[in-house]
Amino acid sequence: MKYQRLATRSRSGVRLWIAAWGLLAAPGAMASCRVSDFTTRPLSSLNEVQRLSFVRQMTQAEYDWLKRSPSGDANYEPLIVQSADRASARKAAQAKLDGLHMPNVNDYATIWASDALDDEQLRNFVACSSNRRPGIVFAGRSAGPATFSLSFAHLTPIGIEKIRLRLVASRNIANIDQFEAFLDKLGEKDQYAAQTFPLTLSRPSEGAVVVLRAGWETPLFVYIPAYPWPDVH
Questions:
Q1: Which string of b and e fits 3-13 if b means at least 16 CB within 10 Å?
Q2: pTM summary value
């Protein structure tokens, strides 16, 4: 009887924990990490694909701040200044990106939105994002004609067991064996602080893919765009 009461309390505790985690993980439960908080570069210094990708995913706070900026200043972006609200600006940016007619353009835009950050800024950005949601969080940037600097973190484990980051699959990565050895060396942990690894593309003119998995979580697909950035017409 005592065991049954203990088991009941244990199950209740688990249910309460899951409910609490659900509230924390729910959209809007915690403020989103903003790309603009991690860079000193003005929006006008980015190329059009980077700006469109930023606008596509900008937070309401970023939109409000940029909307208040006077036309022609260092942060000027026509899609923001001329928009009625954030939703219309994001929709316009998405339409221009869709006009590139590229496979996986939304996955590439996830990278382009923050690839103006340097490696330290990217690590700070993914660490901030990882503190707000479970699973692997990643970002990256072009670090040379054939080098993609991948930053990632996993700071929100569920606390049941240690996890291990594993390589599931890849395409167009020349040094994938080195990356797999890098992950193996990290070993099993409760959480993974922000890391950076330089991936070398076998064919720089083509996109690449890396598939990672943390423990038994759903595999994460990292779609790496080819650089330089495409032209928007």
A1: eeeeeeeeeee
A2: 0.82
For residue 180, is pLDDT > 80? yes
43 phi/psi in degrees, rounded to 5: -60, -35
User: Is there a single domain that holds both residue 138 and residue 95?
Assistant: no
79/118 Cα distance (integer angstroms): 25
- The residue range of the domain holding 148 is 117-233
Q: How many domains does the chain have?
A: 2
Beta bridge partners of 221: 211
Interval 147-153 mean pLDDT = 97
- Domain finish residue from 85, 110, 135: 110
pLDDT tens column, 186-233: 999 989 999 999 999 999 999 999 999 998 899 999 999 999 999 987
Last residue of a domain, one of 110, 133, 156: 110
How many other β-carbons are positioned within 10 Å of the β-carbon of residue 100?
Answer: 15
Please indicate, yes or no, whether residues 214 and 160 belong to a single structural domain of this protein: yes
Q: Is residue 17 part of a domain?
A: no
User: Is residue 15 in a domain?
Assistant: no
Residue 7 lies in a domain: no
